[in-house]
Amino acid sequence: MKTLRFNDPLLMPGTGESPEQLFARAIPLTGTSGQEYVERRGIPVTIADAAGLKFEKDFGGRPAVVFAMRDHEGRLASVHGRYLNTVRGQNKMLTIGSGGGAINVLGGWQVEPLILVEGLFDALSLATCGWASVATVGRWAPWLPEVSADRAVWLAFDTGRPGESEVRGYTQRLHQSSVHRLSPPLRCKDWNTALVKRGPGAVASWIRDHCSMTP
After folding, report:
1. Which of these, 55, 131, 133, 181, is most buried using a 10 Å CB contact count?
2. Residue 60: what are its φ and ψ, rounded to 5°?
3. Which domains does the chain have, with CATH numbers?
């Protein structure tokens, strides 16, 4: 299961900055290259701003959009950055912090239905369609079984083998929940692809129709 593969640094390599310092230094998206980046991916800047996305021009040496990963009590656990540009051999993202957090958008785990997605832009894509979600970014948050106990949980991970591996792992771990699979629309590998290809209305309807089929 992918959630066991990461070894995120506690502090930013080279500068020694903490997650709190990094997130405090980041600025609002509007008027930055971060705004251009999210809009190219189909996310209105108003949605990204409301969700808490920020811009940092030097996140480990490169510009990135950054987001706070928080625990179930709202405490900042890590800062996750998605780089605006990458070349061959560079990582697309970097996460700094002790772990145990997740990205909660539009209320995240506190909203029904509880939808878990893979990445930051999956969560922002669902928010653009009016749906709350929790992005795991491939990491395990140990409080998820507690907050999801006796609830229906929709595992909306990517299509393909990695996504199905996540589904199997979370199904085992969330054994106190009623777990259901929510795949992206046909011929879409993830929710951001679906948003760009199908549009927010079609994606919102897809989610509503499938979630309404809960036994």
Report:
1. 133
2. 70, 30
3. 2-97 (3.90.980.10), 103-209 (3.40.1360.10)
Give the C-alpha separation, 36 to 137, whole Å: 22
Is the model's pTM score more than 0.90?
yes
Task: Tell me the pLDDT band of 2, cut-offs 50, 70 and 90.
Answer: very low
CA angle 67, 16, 27 (to 5 degrees): 35
Say if CB 126 and CB 117 are below 8 A apart: yes
Angstrom CA distances, 9 to 14, 153, 154, stand at 11, 30, 30
- Selection from 107, 108, 110, 144 nearest residue 3 by Cα: 144
Residue 19, phi then psi, degrees to nearest 5 = -55, -40
Q: Which two tokens stand for residue 20?
A: 């709190």
Whole-angstrom distance between the N-terminal and C-terminal Cα of the chain? 27
CA distance 113 to 95: 27
Q: Is-contact 81 69, C-beta < 8 A?
A: no
Digit-coded pLDDT (tens) for 7-44: 899 999 999 999 999 999 999 999 999 999 999 999 99
- Condensed to tens digits (0 to 9), the pLDDT of residues 30-81 reads 999 999 999 999 999 999 999 999 999 999 999 999 999 999 999 999 999 9
Rounded Cα distance between 17 and 147, Å, is 31
